Amino acid sequence: MFNRKMIGPTRFEEYSEKYKDLFLMTRRDGILEVRMHTNGGPLQFDWPVQAAYGHVWSDIGRDPENEVMILTGTGELWQIGNPEVWNTKFMDWPNRRKLEMYHESLRMIENMVHCLDIPTIGAVNGTGAHWQLGTLCDITICAEDTAFFDAHYLGGVPPGDGIVLALQKILGSKKAAYYAYTGLNITAQEALDLGLISEVMPREQLLPRAWGLAEMIMQAPRSTRHLTHSIVSHPWKQAFAENQGLQLTHQLYDMAIDEEGIHERLMKLKERFQRNGR
After folding, report:
1. 97, 99, 181, 261 - which has most CB atoms within 10 Å?
2. pLDDT score for 277
3. pTM score of the predicted model
4. Please, what are the domains in the chain?
5. How many CA atoms within 13 Å lie on the side-chain side of 200?
6. CB 104 within 8 A of CB 48
Protein backbone atom coordinates (compact mmCIF):
# COMPACT_ATOMS: atom_id res chain seq x y z
CA MET A 1 0.00 0.00 0.00
CA PHE A 2 1.48 3.35 -1.01
CA ASN A 3 1.80 6.23 1.42
CA ARG A 4 -0.53 8.97 0.14
CA LYS A 5 1.29 11.63 2.17
CA MET A 6 4.59 10.84 0.47
CA ILE A 7 3.24 11.36 -3.04
CA GLY A 8 0.64 14.04 -2.31
CA PRO A 9 0.88 17.76 -3.06
CA THR A 10 3.14 20.13 -1.17
CA ARG A 11 1.22 21.99 1.51
CA PHE A 12 0.59 25.74 1.28
CA GLU A 13 2.65 26.34 4.43
CA GLU A 14 5.64 24.69 2.76
CA TYR A 15 5.64 26.22 -0.71
CA SER A 16 4.58 29.69 0.43
CA GLU A 17 7.63 29.67 2.71
CA LYS A 18 9.88 28.22 -0.01
CA TYR A 19 9.07 31.00 -2.49
CA LYS A 20 8.58 33.90 -0.06
CA ASP A 21 11.64 35.84 -1.32
CA LEU A 22 10.09 36.02 -4.80
CA PHE A 23 6.36 35.41 -4.39
CA LEU A 24 4.39 36.48 -1.34
CA MET A 25 1.26 34.34 -1.04
CA THR A 26 -2.00 34.99 0.76
CA ARG A 27 -4.89 32.54 0.72
CA ARG A 28 -8.41 33.13 1.97
CA ASP A 29 -11.45 30.95 1.35
CA GLY A 30 -9.76 29.15 -1.54
CA ILE A 31 -8.51 32.34 -3.25
CA LEU A 32 -4.73 32.50 -3.58
CA GLU A 33 -3.02 35.85 -4.16
CA VAL A 34 0.52 35.57 -5.51
CA ARG A 35 2.42 38.86 -5.34
CA MET A 36 5.78 39.04 -7.10
CA HIS A 37 8.44 41.03 -5.27
CA THR A 38 12.13 41.54 -4.48
CA ASN A 39 12.85 42.87 -0.98
CA GLY A 40 9.35 44.30 -0.80
CA GLY A 41 9.64 46.17 -4.12
CA PRO A 42 9.01 45.21 -7.76
CA LEU A 43 10.35 41.80 -8.71
CA GLN A 44 13.90 42.00 -10.11
CA PHE A 45 13.99 39.42 -12.90
CA ASP A 46 17.04 37.18 -13.25
CA TRP A 47 17.74 33.55 -14.16
CA PRO A 48 16.92 32.06 -10.72
CA VAL A 49 13.57 33.87 -10.93
CA GLN A 50 12.93 32.38 -14.37
CA ALA A 51 13.62 28.88 -13.03
CA ALA A 52 11.43 29.49 -9.98
CA TYR A 53 8.39 30.31 -12.11
CA GLY A 54 8.14 26.80 -13.52
CA HIS A 55 8.33 25.29 -10.03
CA VAL A 56 5.88 27.66 -8.36
CA TRP A 57 3.15 27.02 -10.96
CA SER A 58 3.57 23.28 -10.41
CA ASP A 59 3.31 23.53 -6.62
CA ILE A 60 0.31 25.87 -6.73
CA GLY A 61 -1.45 23.72 -9.29
CA ARG A 62 -1.03 20.51 -7.30
CA ASP A 63 -2.62 21.95 -4.16
CA PRO A 64 -6.39 21.19 -4.22
CA GLU A 65 -7.01 23.92 -1.64
CA ASN A 66 -6.25 26.56 -4.29
CA GLU A 67 -9.49 27.39 -6.11
CA VAL A 68 -8.76 30.74 -7.81
CA MET A 69 -5.39 32.44 -8.30
CA ILE A 70 -4.66 36.17 -8.46
CA LEU A 71 -1.24 37.12 -9.86
CA THR A 72 0.05 40.64 -9.26
CA GLY A 73 3.21 42.67 -8.70
CA THR A 74 4.49 45.09 -6.08
CA GLY A 75 4.43 48.87 -6.20
CA GLU A 76 4.10 50.67 -9.51
CA LEU A 77 5.89 48.14 -11.75
CA TRP A 78 4.95 44.60 -12.79
CA GLN A 79 8.57 43.40 -12.66
CA ILE A 80 11.95 44.83 -13.60
CA GLY A 81 14.23 43.35 -16.23
CA ASN A 82 17.96 43.58 -15.61
CA PRO A 83 20.29 44.02 -18.63
CA GLU A 84 23.20 42.97 -16.41
CA VAL A 85 22.11 39.33 -16.64
CA TRP A 86 23.53 39.43 -20.17
CA ASN A 87 27.05 40.50 -19.13
CA THR A 88 28.25 37.13 -20.41
CA LYS A 89 27.37 36.61 -24.07
CA PHE A 90 24.96 33.74 -24.58
CA MET A 91 27.31 32.19 -27.13
CA ASP A 92 29.89 31.87 -24.32
CA TRP A 93 27.53 30.08 -21.95
CA PRO A 94 28.33 26.39 -21.32
CA ASN A 95 26.24 24.13 -23.55
CA ARG A 96 24.54 22.53 -20.55
CA ARG A 97 23.45 25.95 -19.28
CA LYS A 98 22.08 26.86 -22.72
CA LEU A 99 19.92 23.74 -22.65
CA GLU A 100 18.74 24.56 -19.13
CA MET A 101 17.85 28.06 -20.33
CA TYR A 102 15.69 26.57 -23.08
CA HIS A 103 13.74 24.37 -20.68
CA GLU A 104 13.39 27.04 -17.99
CA SER A 105 12.10 29.54 -20.56
CA LEU A 106 9.47 27.06 -21.70
CA ARG A 107 8.38 26.05 -18.20
CA MET A 108 8.04 29.66 -17.10
CA ILE A 109 4.93 30.08 -19.23
CA GLU A 110 3.94 26.55 -20.26
CA ASN A 111 3.62 25.39 -16.65
CA MET A 112 1.38 28.35 -15.95
CA VAL A 113 -0.99 27.13 -18.66
CA HIS A 114 -0.67 23.39 -18.16
CA CYS A 115 -0.26 23.08 -14.37
CA LEU A 116 -2.98 25.45 -13.19
CA ASP A 117 -6.44 23.90 -13.49
CA ILE A 118 -8.19 26.75 -11.69
CA PRO A 119 -9.49 30.17 -12.79
CA THR A 120 -6.76 32.82 -12.86
CA ILE A 121 -6.82 36.61 -12.65
CA GLY A 122 -3.89 38.78 -13.69
CA ALA A 123 -3.85 42.11 -11.82
CA VAL A 124 -1.16 43.99 -13.75
CA ASN A 125 -0.13 46.79 -11.40
CA GLY A 126 2.15 48.62 -13.84
CA THR A 127 4.52 48.40 -16.78
CA GLY A 128 7.22 45.76 -16.69
CA ALA A 129 9.01 42.77 -18.11
CA HIS A 130 7.27 39.50 -18.95
CA TRP A 131 3.81 41.00 -18.89
CA GLN A 132 2.61 38.03 -20.95
CA LEU A 133 2.18 36.19 -17.63
CA GLY A 134 -0.60 38.61 -16.76
CA THR A 135 -2.33 38.23 -20.12
CA LEU A 136 -2.17 34.42 -19.93
CA CYS A 137 -4.59 34.59 -17.01
CA ASP A 138 -8.27 33.97 -17.74
CA ILE A 139 -9.13 37.55 -16.76
CA THR A 140 -6.61 40.40 -16.96
CA ILE A 141 -7.09 43.80 -15.34
CA CYS A 142 -4.49 46.54 -15.18
CA ALA A 143 -3.63 49.91 -13.66
CA GLU A 144 -4.48 52.87 -15.85
CA ASP A 145 -0.86 54.01 -16.33
CA THR A 146 0.37 50.59 -17.49
CA ALA A 147 2.11 50.29 -20.87
CA PHE A 148 2.71 47.01 -22.70
CA PHE A 149 5.59 46.65 -25.15
CA ASP A 150 8.22 44.22 -26.42
CA ALA A 151 11.76 45.53 -26.90
CA HIS A 152 13.38 42.29 -28.07
CA TYR A 153 13.72 43.35 -31.71
CA LEU A 154 14.98 46.83 -30.76
CA GLY A 155 17.63 45.10 -28.67
CA GLY A 156 18.66 42.90 -31.59
CA VAL A 157 16.98 39.70 -30.40
CA PRO A 158 14.18 37.70 -32.08
CA PRO A 159 11.08 37.87 -29.85
CA GLY A 160 10.61 34.26 -28.79
CA ASP A 161 9.84 34.39 -25.06
CA GLY A 162 6.06 34.35 -25.40
CA ILE A 163 5.21 38.05 -25.61
CA VAL A 164 4.75 38.09 -29.37
CA LEU A 165 2.92 34.78 -29.20
CA ALA A 166 0.48 36.41 -26.77
CA LEU A 167 0.11 39.36 -29.14
CA GLN A 168 -0.46 37.04 -32.10
CA LYS A 169 -3.09 35.05 -30.26
CA ILE A 170 -4.99 38.04 -28.89
CA LEU A 171 -4.45 40.84 -31.42
CA GLY A 172 -3.86 38.85 -34.61
CA SER A 173 -0.76 38.38 -36.74
CA LYS A 174 -0.71 41.80 -38.42
CA LYS A 175 -0.92 43.92 -35.25
CA ALA A 176 1.48 41.57 -33.46
CA ALA A 177 4.07 42.01 -36.22
CA TYR A 178 3.73 45.79 -36.02
CA TYR A 179 4.36 45.91 -32.28
CA ALA A 180 7.15 43.33 -32.53
CA TYR A 181 9.11 45.38 -35.07
CA THR A 182 8.44 48.84 -33.63
CA GLY A 183 8.52 48.13 -29.89
CA LEU A 184 5.89 50.83 -29.46
CA ASN A 185 3.97 51.16 -26.21
CA ILE A 186 0.41 49.89 -25.99
CA THR A 187 -1.27 52.06 -23.39
CA ALA A 188 -3.75 50.61 -20.93
CA GLN A 189 -6.69 52.09 -22.83
CA GLU A 190 -5.32 50.85 -26.16
CA ALA A 191 -4.80 47.41 -24.61
CA LEU A 192 -8.43 47.43 -23.51
CA ASP A 193 -9.62 48.50 -26.95
CA LEU A 194 -7.47 45.83 -28.62
CA GLY A 195 -8.74 43.08 -26.31
CA LEU A 196 -5.37 42.48 -24.64
CA ILE A 197 -6.86 43.10 -21.19
CA SER A 198 -10.32 42.97 -19.60
CA GLU A 199 -10.55 46.14 -17.47
CA VAL A 200 -8.58 49.30 -16.63
CA MET A 201 -8.76 51.12 -13.30
CA PRO A 202 -6.75 53.23 -10.84
CA ARG A 203 -3.99 51.24 -9.19
CA GLU A 204 -5.51 51.50 -5.71
CA GLN A 205 -8.66 49.77 -6.97
CA LEU A 206 -6.83 46.95 -8.74
CA LEU A 207 -6.47 44.34 -6.00
CA PRO A 208 -9.91 44.97 -4.47
CA ARG A 209 -11.40 44.45 -7.92
CA ALA A 210 -9.33 41.27 -8.44
CA TRP A 211 -10.57 39.87 -5.14
CA GLY A 212 -14.12 40.86 -6.01
CA LEU A 213 -13.88 38.98 -9.30
CA ALA A 214 -12.35 35.98 -7.53
CA GLU A 215 -15.16 35.92 -4.95
CA MET A 216 -17.71 36.08 -7.76
CA ILE A 217 -16.02 33.15 -9.52
CA MET A 218 -16.05 31.16 -6.27
CA GLN A 219 -19.85 31.27 -6.16
CA ALA A 220 -20.08 28.62 -8.89
CA PRO A 221 -19.66 24.90 -8.10
CA ARG A 222 -16.09 23.58 -8.02
CA SER A 223 -16.52 21.47 -11.16
CA THR A 224 -17.96 24.43 -13.04
CA ARG A 225 -14.98 26.58 -12.11
CA HIS A 226 -12.41 24.00 -13.09
CA LEU A 227 -14.02 22.97 -16.35
CA THR A 228 -14.73 26.56 -17.41
CA HIS A 229 -11.03 27.30 -16.90
CA SER A 230 -10.22 24.26 -19.03
CA ILE A 231 -12.39 25.62 -21.84
CA VAL A 232 -11.08 29.19 -21.77
CA SER A 233 -7.42 28.17 -21.41
CA HIS A 234 -7.48 25.55 -24.17
CA PRO A 235 -6.56 28.02 -26.95
CA TRP A 236 -3.40 28.90 -25.01
CA LYS A 237 -2.49 25.23 -24.67
CA GLN A 238 -2.88 24.82 -28.42
CA ALA A 239 -0.84 27.93 -29.17
CA PHE A 240 2.05 26.88 -26.95
CA ALA A 241 2.07 23.32 -28.26
CA GLU A 242 2.19 24.55 -31.86
CA ASN A 243 4.41 27.63 -31.63
CA GLN A 244 6.27 28.33 -28.41
CA GLY A 245 9.07 25.80 -28.88
CA LEU A 246 9.67 27.08 -32.42
CA GLN A 247 9.68 30.75 -31.42
CA LEU A 248 11.96 30.20 -28.43
CA THR A 249 14.38 28.11 -30.51
CA HIS A 250 14.64 30.93 -33.06
CA GLN A 251 15.44 33.41 -30.30
CA LEU A 252 18.06 31.23 -28.59
CA TYR A 253 19.71 30.22 -31.88
CA ASP A 254 20.23 33.85 -32.83
CA MET A 255 21.58 34.60 -29.35
CA ALA A 256 23.98 31.66 -29.63
CA ILE A 257 25.59 33.05 -32.81
CA ASP A 258 25.53 36.69 -31.68
CA GLU A 259 29.18 37.78 -31.37
CA GLU A 260 28.36 41.29 -30.17
CA GLY A 261 26.19 40.18 -27.29
CA ILE A 262 22.90 41.54 -26.02
CA HIS A 263 24.21 43.63 -23.15
CA GLU A 264 25.70 46.47 -25.20
CA ARG A 265 22.56 46.89 -27.25
CA LEU A 266 20.34 46.79 -24.19
CA MET A 267 22.41 49.46 -22.47
CA LYS A 268 21.58 51.83 -25.34
CA LEU A 269 17.92 51.37 -24.39
CA LYS A 270 18.58 51.44 -20.65
CA GLU A 271 16.66 54.64 -20.01
CA ARG A 272 13.52 53.19 -21.54
CA PHE A 273 13.92 49.93 -19.64
CA GLN A 274 14.23 51.77 -16.35
CA ARG A 275 11.34 54.11 -17.12
CA ASN A 276 9.05 51.28 -18.16
CA GLY A 277 10.29 48.58 -15.83
CA ARG A 278 11.88 46.44 -18.51
Report:
1. 261
2. 43
3. 0.93
4. 4-210+222-276 (3.90.226.10)
5. 17
6. no
